[in-house]
Amino acid sequence: MGLGDTVDGRVFHVKLPGHDAMARRVDEHVAPTRILLPRRVVDRPIRQVVKRLLMALLVLAVTVLIVWSDRSGYHDAADGSVDLLDAVYYSTVTLSTTGYGDITPYSDGARLINVLLVTPLRVLFLIILVGTTLEVLTERTREDFRLNRWRTNLREHTVVVGFGTKGRSAIQTLCATGLKKEQIVIVDPATKVIEAANAEGFVGVVGDATRSEVLLRAELQKARQIIIATQRDDTAVLVTLTARQLNRGAKIVAAVREEENAPLLRQSGADAVITSASAAGRLLGLSVLSPSAGTVMEDLIQQGSGLDLVERPVIKAEVGKSVRETDDLVVSVLRGHRLIGYDDPSASPLQLTDRLITIARASGDAQSLNTPHRQGG
């Protein structure tokens, strides 16, 4: 889809942002699409191999020392005596289970030492080498098993497209409200970004989110909500169109830089659109006029501390009452798909199917402010 193509009879024209120094570089290397699960904390493969190699050499050295200290109990078919080189040779072929038979223990003491010491060392040597090989061979199998189990158990999750400043802030807010990290899947085209998400405990999908196969890897068709926080507005439009096509029932929230592109996002299927540049500008202007009001607004949009904006259903005891008679500070009433202000006469009386947008204390403190003062009465 191009920037001026027609979709469902509508022509989309996206205003592109200018040269933003804060935008991500588009010439970075993009890796093939794949899913990266958070990894367990283990040593790097090279360190693991070096460790096991040193262990194997240690076992070999101990075996050589044992054979050399009891060399008089061994017989060499070539010259009858066993020197240091013969001890190394015998230990090597013995631990590797080759056993040519040219050097053999003939005394009772040497044979007893072989049974009690050399044989356990041989088994340990094989475990070290075979264990390293099996670990390399089974690593892919374990990853496939974890991936299949993750796909099977994933339901009603949240997909976040873009792990930049906006995406991270959105995830912090979701986690502050109780959403588990296992229920969040991040999609981003940069491998380093997904690796950073993995380090924080999130599942990530490397790939271009405008492609349906990438979103399907994130199990977007089973998602409950989708957050689109891309760096470019045209990308956000394409991702929204693709996401809505794959999941008709999910709630889609998208961010745009230019306010002119907000209606386009809504036409593409977004349920809510946030204009990041305009929102930041309004907050700046409010802070200039009233720094305290700006602080309150910053507190409200930061979940988990101070005051929080909360959406909740109307309880039975509140049915038939006005918004001023509730125990909470009601900002708006959501009736069906209509958002009604608290001062709108049609907001009262409250109905059982209504939902209230209220201001509550993040600490859960039961203390409330005076209702008439809150409502301006």
Model description:
With 377 residues, the protein is an alpha/beta fold. It has eleven helices and 15 strands. It has helices at residues 45-69, 84-95, 108-153, 165-176, 191-199, 212-217, 233-246, 262-268, 276-289, 291-300, 371-374; strands at 6-7, 10-11, 34-36, 74-76, 103-105, 158-161, 184-188, 203-206, 225-228, 251-256, 272-275, 307-313, 329-335, 338-341, 355-361. Strands 3-8-7-6-9-10-11 form a seven-stranded mixed β-sheet, with helices on both faces. A four-stranded antiparallel β-sheet has the order 12-15-13-14, with helices on one face. A two-stranded antiparallel sheet has the order 1-2. Strand 7 (184-188), helix 5 and strand 8 (203-206) form a beta-alpha-beta unit. Helix 1 runs antiparallel to helix 3 (108-153) and helix 9 runs antiparallel to helix 10. The longest helix is centred in the middle third of the chain and has 46 residues, at 108-153.
Task: Provide a compact summary of the structure.
The protein is an alpha/beta fold. The chain is built from eleven helices and 15 strands. Helix 1 packs antiparallel against helix 3 and helix 9 runs antiparallel to helix 10.
Q: Give the total of beta strands.
A: 15
* Average of per-residue pLDDT values: 78
- Largest sheet descriptor: 7 strands, mixed
Radius of gyration: 33 Å
Shape: elongated
The termini sit apart by 53 Å
Strand percent estimate: 15-25%
Helicity range: 40-55%
User: Which strands sit side by side, in order, in the main sheet?
Assistant: 3-8-7-6-9-10-11
User: SSE order, as H and E?
Assistant: EEEHEHEHEHEHEHEHEHEHHEEEEH
Q: What structural class do helix, strand and pairing data support?
A: alpha/beta
Please work out how many helical segments DSSP would assign.
11
The poorly predicted ranges are: 18-31, 364-377
